[in-house]
């Protein structure tokens, strides 16, 4: 008996839902008509005074059972959705979004194709540039492994002002010299918008570090030059904030952007940061940009670099970044997590034997 009653009531609800659906869409069409008239008269589509009046009317007429505040909230959502409907669909979709560009952004750095499905790139090098000899030793190993991209920090934004801050421009000069000698492309972090123009002469990829992910002036400066940019996810940035940071660069005209997941801050202390591994396929779904994983900073642990790199490749990353130092124990930064040359060779051999590297698997998420 009770079930029959529920069925009958549900039937009524279905009818009401149908009516609401029709009414909401009918309403939207009228809002669109008003929008078109406003456009011809050069008027603003959004009218807060008119919206206030309607909310007041709801308040006057409401006899419950809903609270007026609840109804006002629902109606405000309807106003908002109706206004959004009028926006140019293209304006809403970010330039970096898959909606805007379904195919992957693919570009070349020093003969290395970045962002093509089934092709992965490794970036290796020391955390910080300490000397010519140190960088050259790593470059030799990187080259021997058949890699084409060398990293090295010249400007080091450190947590403590008393920690090694990097060699600055001198560091960039060392990187350039080594890169030329070993025919490698170099990637290095720039922290000051004023240094971007100068850096372009020395480096092949501008890195924007996690701490600067929302340094909007820096993002704009990086968007105004003709150099690929590797943008790291901020320490506590959501995926949406990360995507918007990339949009800052691309909206300035530079579409060669690599997104780099580097772990986020959580309560977990077993690793330096928590590698948000599923951000990789999410970023690949939401954007058309190449997505890399920095296994060094996300884990902060040498023993986790290999499994994290394999996980990154397995889940669809376009590349992996890993730190290598000739003698990590004496490194001026990140000594607990850099690989020495032997460890790096083993790491690369394991990766190459894993079946995960540069396989063309049409079912992998990177083939979207
Ligand atoms: C429809 C209009 O334009 C906008 C949309 C509104 C709505 O959805 O009801 C209300 C006010 C404006 O923000 C209007 O001015 O009446």
UniProtKB/TrEMBL annotation:
<dbReference type="GO" id="GO:0003849">
    <property type="term" value="F:3-deoxy-7-phosphoheptulonate synthase activity"/>
</dbReference>
<dbReference type="InterPro" id="IPR006268">
    <property type="entry name" value="DAHP_syn_2"/>
</dbReference>
<dbReference type="InterPro" id="IPR010954">
    <property type="entry name" value="Chorismate_mutase_GmP-bac"/>
</dbReference>
<dbReference type="GO" id="GO:0004106">
    <property type="term" value="F:chorismate mutase activity"/>
</dbReference>
<dbReference type="InterPro" id="IPR036979">
    <property type="entry name" value="CM_dom_sf"/>
</dbReference>
<dbReference type="InterPro" id="IPR013785">
    <property type="entry name" value="Aldolase_TIM"/>
</dbReference>
<keyword id="KW-0175">Coiled coil</keyword>
<dbReference type="Pfam" id="PF01817">
    <property type="entry name" value="CM_2"/>
</dbReference>
<keyword id="KW-0808">Transferase</keyword>
<dbReference type="InterPro" id="IPR002701">
    <property type="entry name" value="CM_II_prokaryot"/>
</dbReference>
<protein>
    <submittedName>
        <fullName>3-deoxy-7-phosphoheptulonate synthase</fullName>
        <ecNumber>2.5.1.54</ecNumber>
    </submittedName>
</protein>
<feature type="domain" description="Chorismate mutase">
    <location>
        <begin position="1"/>
        <end position="90"/>
    </location>
</feature>
<dbReference type="GO" id="GO:0046417">
    <property type="term" value="P:chorismate metabolic process"/>
</dbReference>
<dbReference type="InterPro" id="IPR052899">
    <property type="entry name" value="Class-I_DAHP_synthase"/>
</dbReference>
<feature type="coiled-coil region">
    <location>
        <begin position="6"/>
        <end position="33"/>
    </location>
</feature>
<dbReference type="GO" id="GO:0009073">
    <property type="term" value="P:aromatic amino acid family biosynthetic process"/>
</dbReference>
<dbReference type="Pfam" id="PF00793">
    <property type="entry name" value="DAHP_synth_1"/>
</dbReference>
<dbReference type="GO" id="GO:0016832">
    <property type="term" value="F:aldehyde-lyase activity"/>
</dbReference>
<dbReference type="InterPro" id="IPR006218">
    <property type="entry name" value="DAHP1/KDSA"/>
</dbReference>
